[in-house]
Design goal:
The complex is a heterodimer. Chain A is an alpha+beta fold. Chain A contains three helices and ten strands, in the order αββαβββββββαβ. In chain A, the strands form three sheets. Chain A has a four-stranded antiparallel sheet. By secondary structure, chain B is an alpha+beta fold. In chain B, strands 1-2-8-4-5 form a five-stranded antiparallel sheet. In chain B, strands 7-6-3-9 form a four-stranded mixed sheet, with no helix packed on it. The chains are: A alpha+beta, B alpha+beta. Chains A and B meet through α1, α2, β5 and β9 of A and α1, β4, β5 and β8 of B.
Chain lengths: ~190, ~180
């Protein structure tokens, strides 16, 4: 009886440690050799690919299920601003850049659990077709809980961590071959509540 | 003697932890994919091997994480263990469209977009691994690495004032079992 109890304890502790360490490791910011970083943005060049390793595949399943492979679409994600601080709904941000070298691109904002942030305007993203550009062809997206004049994505009233995703559909060969070389938008914090 | 027993227990615990760690990471994509497939079928009241044309995604209509609100999705939970599937696709001239196929472990094993469809025929035949198809026609024959998985079609909303056109293109996707 005592031996059975002992082995049951060992099994439970092993199970707890194994599953716990797996979830912790998967939740950690992934920056292994398959992830390419550019400013605040990072992309996994093997997302959706059959060549993905077990950790990358599991991470994509959690936070980017049903991703396309990089020849079709490149996904850049950002959890921090340009200064390295986590993106928060309590702060206002400017996302500034110019058109990206792809057939089509979009920038979408997600809440803490990677779902769209509820808002009356039903506005969650801007893309190549609907963004308003300045006279010099640059764009400026405002991520804020308060209304802005143009290119405004509401970040909601609830303070939470935010995630940005930049999608490049049919990216140019130059970007596919050099994912860290392209000019990606800057994410600039303006003020916090 | 007591130290030896503790060492043995520690080694067994750590070995078990390593095994659970690897098993968790390995099977997690399959578990998530099975969960999403089941949830999609249940919430959309659909059956396998049928195309489900979803309305535009909003915050109250999400079934998977990180959806793109600029796309119209058509989803199909497939099972080609018994019969192959025939997928007919549109080739729109003024918007992006793609058909992507995902294995049970989430791998994107096939994708084709509107430009490639326009050049290579508009039909795809999805068959089970190891199966063969002797029929004729201008098909892409695609072998699924796993008998179950998900097909996801994306239609880009290029102009919000032309939603009816976009929905019409989306609904041109048909998926049916080959009898």
């Amino acid at each position: 009886m005592k031996t059975t109890l002992k082995y049951l304890c060992i099994l439970l502790i092993g199970c707890f440690l194994g599953i716990g360490s797996a979830m912790y490791w998967l939740a950690k910011s992934p920056l292994d050799s398959n992830w390419v970083k550019k400013g605040a943005w990072r992309t996994n060049i093997l997302a959706g690919s059959e060549q993905s390793g077990m950790y990358d595949r599991a991470r994509i399943a959690i936070a980017g299920l049903l991703a396309l492979n990089k020849s079709e679409t490149l996904y850049y994600v950002a959890d921090n601003d340009d200064s390295g601080e986590p993106l928060r709904a309590a702060c206002d941000y400017r996302i500034e850049g110019k058109d990206l070298d792809a057939r089509w691109w979009s920038i979408t904002v997600y809440g803490r659990t990677y779902f769209l942030i509820p808002n009356e305007q039903k506005r969650y993203s801007f893309n190549r077709n609907n963004i308003t550009r300045d006279t010099d062809n640059h764009f400026r997206i405002h991520l804020s809980s308060k209304p802005k004049e143009k290119n405004w994505i509401p970040s909601g009233q609830k303070d939470q961590k935010l995630h940005l995703t930049l999608r490049l559909y049919n990216p140019s060969l130059g970007i596919v071959e050099n994912s860290s070389g392209s000019d990606l938008p800057n994410i600039i914090k303006e003020q916090c509540k | 003697m007591q130290v030896k027993v503790w060492m043995k227990s520690t080694v067994i615990t750590l070995t078990l932890a390593a095994v659970f760690h690897i098993v968790t990471v390995t099977i997690l994509p399959d578990v998530i994919m099975a969960f999403v497939s089941k949830k999609a079928l249940h919430s959309l009241k659909a059956s396998v091997n049928t195309a489900i044309h979803r309305p535009r995604i909003t915050d109250d209509q999400e079934t998977i994480v990180m959806p793109c609100p600029d796309l119209l999705y058509t989803i199909c939970v497939y099972d080609v263990s018994q019969k192959p599937l025939r997928i007919k696709a549109p080739t729109p001239k003024d918007t992006y469209f793609s058909i992507a196929m995902y294995a049970a472990n989430t791998d994107n094993f096939f994708v084709v977009n509107d430009r490639q469809l326009a050049n290579g025929g508009r039909e795809i035949l999805l068959i089970n691994k190891g199966a063969s198809y002797s029929g004729s026609g201008n098909f892409w024959v695609v072998e699924a690495p796993t008998s179950k998985g998900i097909i996801l079609c994306r239609t880009l909303i290029t102009d919000e004032n032309r939603m009816e056109d976009m929905i019409r293109i989306q609904h041109q996707v048909t998926i049916a079992e080959v009898q």
